[in-house]
UniProtKB/TrEMBL annotation:
One of its GO terms (molecular function) is glutathione transferase activity. It catalyses: RX + glutathione = an S-substituted glutathione + a halide anion + H(+). Keywords: Transferase. Residues 88-219 form the GST C-terminal domain. Gene3D superfamilies: 1.20.1050.10, Glutaredoxin. It comes from the Eukaryota. PROSITE patterns: GST_CTER, GST_NTER. The keyword Transferase applies. Its EC number is 2.5.1.18. This is glutathione transferase. The keyword Zinc does not apply. It comes from Paramecium tetraurelia. It is an enzyme of class 2 (transferase). One of its GO terms (cellular component) is cytoplasm.
Length: 239
């Protein structure tokens, strides 16, 4: 990596797109600083430099601001050989499409988690299950999406399985039960060291608190789970 450039990642603590970037940065052992900001209280300096006023952004040196998690992930991959993204144009295009596929699942998964209306909750669940069914077909007998070795596209799905894992003890959330390959894939991703440490230690705590405080369908269907002890982990970066 070119040491002339200092990297600063700006993130929200529970942002799944930031989690993707953190996971690949951890996997590739990239040194960086992190600045957490709050979604409902974005500082002026941030809204001035983030084109969509969204996180993650990666500030490189003094001037360059990368935005969009996919672009940031590809950049990190490029500067830290060996690359995890294929050079083959077709494979690359297929992978980029799956970057977007993962974003759609993540968006719906978060809507599902924080949903307060039963009817919408059921529809979202159905939609997510159908996307997981598609993944079951993509995986066939492979450990990762492109074969036995992990590639960049796989890091996009880390937040999906971190969230599904967190909700595993809740019966109505067992969306993976018919999809053995997706289950194994999720287990492979969540057992990676960079997945375990590549997010804030209180991620689960903050998520569970949010689910509870917003009186979501999930909370109403299983209040005991959300009132239980709060998990915490160690993490690879210092805040
Ligand atoms: N496509 C973007 C999505 C980023 C995104 O939606 N970030 C959310 C946080 S999880 C955000 O910054 N939202 C603030 C807002 O919409 O005002 C990416 O992959 O980076």
């Amino acid at each position: 990596m070119d040491k002339r450039f200092k990297h600063t990642l700006v993130a929200f603590k529970i942002c799944p797109y930031c989690m993707k970037v953190l996971t690949i940065m951890c996997h590739k052992n990239v040194k960086f600083e992190i600045k957490f900001i709050e979604m409902h209280n974005k500082p002026d300096w941030f809204t001035k430099i983030s084109p969509l006023e969204k996180v993650p952004i990666l500030i490189i040196g003094e001037e360059v601001v990368l935005f969009e998690s996919a672009a940031i992930m590809e950049y990190i991959d490029e500067i830290t050989p060996p690359k995890l993204m294929s050079d083959d144009p077709i494979q690359k295009a297929l992978d980029r499409a799956k970057f977007e596929y993962s974003n759609e699942i993540i968006k719906s998964l978060y809507q599902f988690i924080f949903c307060t209306e039963q009817e919408k909750f059921v529809k979202l669940k159905e939609w997510i299950i159908n996307r997981l069914k598609q993944m079951e077909e993509w995986l066939k007998d492979k450990k990762y999406l492109n074969g036995s070795e992990i590639s960049l596209v796989d890091f996009n799905f880390v937040p999906v399985f971190v969230v599904l894992n967190m909700l595993k003890p809740i019966l109505p959330c067992d969306m993976l039960k018919d999809y053995k390959r997706v289950q194994n894939y999720g287990d492979s991703l969540t057992s990676l060291q960079c997945t375990k440490t590549g997010r804030v230690p209180d991620y689960e705590f903050l998520m569970i608190d949010g689910i509870k405080n917003q009186n979501t369908v999930l909370f109403r269907s299983n209040p005991c789970y959300f009132n239980g002890p709060k998990p915490s982990r160690c993490c690879f970066f210092s805040k």
